[in-house]
Design brief:
The structure holds two protein chains of two kinds.
Chain A lengths: L2 E3 L3 E5 L4 E8 L6 E6 L6 E6 L3 E5 L2 E6 L4 E6 L8 E8 L5 E3 L3 E6 L1
Parallel strand pairs in A: 2-11
Antiparallel strand pairs in A: 1-3, 3-8, 4-5, 4-9, 6-7, 7-8, 9-10, 9-11
Chain B lengths: L3 E4 L2 E4 L5 E7 L6 E7 L6 E7 L5 E2 L8 E7 L2 E6 L8 E8 L10 E2 L3 E5 L1
Parallel strand pairs in B: 2-11
Antiparallel strand pairs in B: 1-3, 3-8, 4-5, 4-9, 5-6, 7-8, 9-10, 9-11
The chains are: A mainly beta, B mainly beta.
Amino acid sequence: GQNIDQPTEMTATEGAIVQINCTYQTSGFNGLFWYQQHAGEAPTFLSYNVLDGLEEKGRFSSFLSRSKGYSYLLLKELQMKDSASYLCAAMDSNYQLIWGAGTKLIIKP
Amino acid sequence: GAVVSQHPSWVICKSGTSVKIECRSLDFQATTMFWYRQFPKQSLMLMATSNEGSKATYEQGVEKDKFLINHASLTLSTLTVTSAHPEDSSFYICSAHTNRDRESYEQYFGPGTRLTVT
């Protein structure tokens, strides 16, 4: 079956770095997405990886290893506004997104 | 660019009534639109996928006669919750995808509609 695993909750300190891991198993693969979702709001796009390697975009970076079925989202210089849920989603061979349950990130001063 | 709007942003209705939620792509043509439901502290659950001009494809366990989806144009899809019940209270989110750029399959999300059925 198709499955996405990511930690339920993580806590980090303002100014620090945090890595949120995601492992996936899908029927075919057409890319891995990361979305940020604040409470009560819709998800907003952060990144898309389809090739192995690290994609850097400001304070956020996303990594993909297709052979390992693994991705991570790296957040640097954490700010209080980064407190949110981070959703990992893999696109299968039918171009359908398979969503993880999300990782709630708590930032402490 | 790539803005998706939803209307209404929140709605309260009585049990047994029907509610229509609109999803519009404002600055692009959406070949495919997706409807999600999200319960508190849970992830997104895909309800259905709709392509313009054709019938929606519903996920297993989603009643197509209860959740009517119409994708009449490349910029508008509607979700109608018929005979709503309190257990239908949820956050409904639409997203849209365009085949314009095959290198990216990003879905553009609307702001969501919070439905409360009393």
